[in-house]
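Technical annex, item 7. During the second reporting period the consortium partners agreed on a shared format for inverse folding records so that results from different sites could be compared directly. Each record opens with the tokenized structure and is followed by the designed sequence. A conforming record, contributed by the partner at site C, is shown below for reference.
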């Protein structure tokens, strides 16, 4: 991570349609690694939602290093579930059929990674991950109403009827969907922490708080280098979220005293890091038990 680029004051990119904003971000940090993209994007974001977008796009590029230089999305959820057994979307040859109910930034994405079942009838569920490009025949994207949390990043429903795609190598669950949970958590935590650090620097918050935010980012950088499926990675990531949670009372007070729009943005979007918290806690408890540590201590 080129930390001097983070420590140097950097103008924020103005809010814009998501594809335009992301294109501007890429222009400001050419050649950035996925983690650098998350952190530098967080610092340059005008809102927590745009910081989330930078972290999400960084995570997608860990998952698919050959991703195009444009906005992407991962399509997994069906009926509020990400379990393979609950999915109805199928891949037959190179044709996709089914529906994904909740795709983050799906209304703005140029390419989509779609999880689909491909096992033979009567066999245990087996996932593939397919690449679909926006506007492909057989795909339909339906914008969903904006959410109270992060309303500047849209969500969409994806319907597929014999949509032609490309299949990525490897098992869709073990190589992609399962590890993405921790990859996304790490990069989004980094991006949101970078956004907060940028606010702290602009508002001249106490130096000790700024240094602790930088320490949190340094921890994220280390976890981003690790195998996202390893139990030690889940434990270290749990430590980072615990560290962020310990800062929250001080952050709440600092944002409450900050000028607009920071206070309103924090009041609206501060719970972003609680998304998927229950699943993250389950992974942490399982990892602690695997390592012979007491998960209930």
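Designed sequence (site C submission):
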């Amino acid at each position: 991570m080129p930390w001097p680029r983070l420590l140097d004051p950097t103008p924020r990119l103005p809010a814009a349609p998501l594809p335009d904003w992301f294109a501007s971000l890429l222009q400001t940090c050419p050649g950035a690694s996925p983690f650098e993209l998350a952190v530098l994007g967080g610092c340059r974001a005008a809102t927590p939602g745009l910081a989330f977008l930078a972290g999400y796009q960084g995570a997608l590029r860990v998952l698919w290093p050959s991703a195009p230089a444009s906005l992407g999305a991962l399509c997994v959820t069906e009926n509020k579930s990400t379990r393979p057994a609950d999915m109805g979307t199928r891949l037959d040859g190179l044709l996709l059929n089914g529906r994904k109910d909740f795709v983050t930034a799906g209304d703005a994405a140029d390419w989509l990674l779609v999880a689909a079942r491909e096992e033979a009838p009567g066999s245990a569920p087996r996932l593939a991950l397919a690449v679909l490009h926006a506007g492909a025949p057989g795909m339909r994207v339906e914008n969903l109403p904006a959410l109270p949390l992060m309303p500047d990043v849209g969500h969409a429903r994806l319907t597929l009827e014999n949509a032609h795609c490309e299949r990525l190598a490897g098992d869709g669950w073990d190589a992609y969907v399962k590890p993405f949970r921790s990859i996304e958590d790490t990069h989004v935590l980094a991006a949101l922490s970078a956004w907060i650090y940028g606010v702290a620097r602009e508002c001249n918050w106490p130096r000790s708080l700024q240094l602790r935010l930088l320490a949190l980012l340094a921890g994220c950088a280390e976890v981003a280098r690790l195998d996202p499926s390893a139990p030690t990675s889940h434990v270290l990531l749990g430590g980072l979220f615990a560290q962020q949670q310990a800062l929250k009372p001080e952050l709440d007070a600092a944002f409450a005293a900050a000028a607009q729009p920071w206070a309103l943005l924090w009041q609206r979007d501060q719970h972003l890091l609680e998304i998927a918290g229950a699943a993250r806690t389950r992974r942490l408890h399982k990892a602690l038990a695997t390592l012979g540590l007491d998960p209930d201590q």
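DSSP finds nine helices and eight strands in the chain. The mean pLDDT is 95. All partners now use this format for quarterly exchanges.
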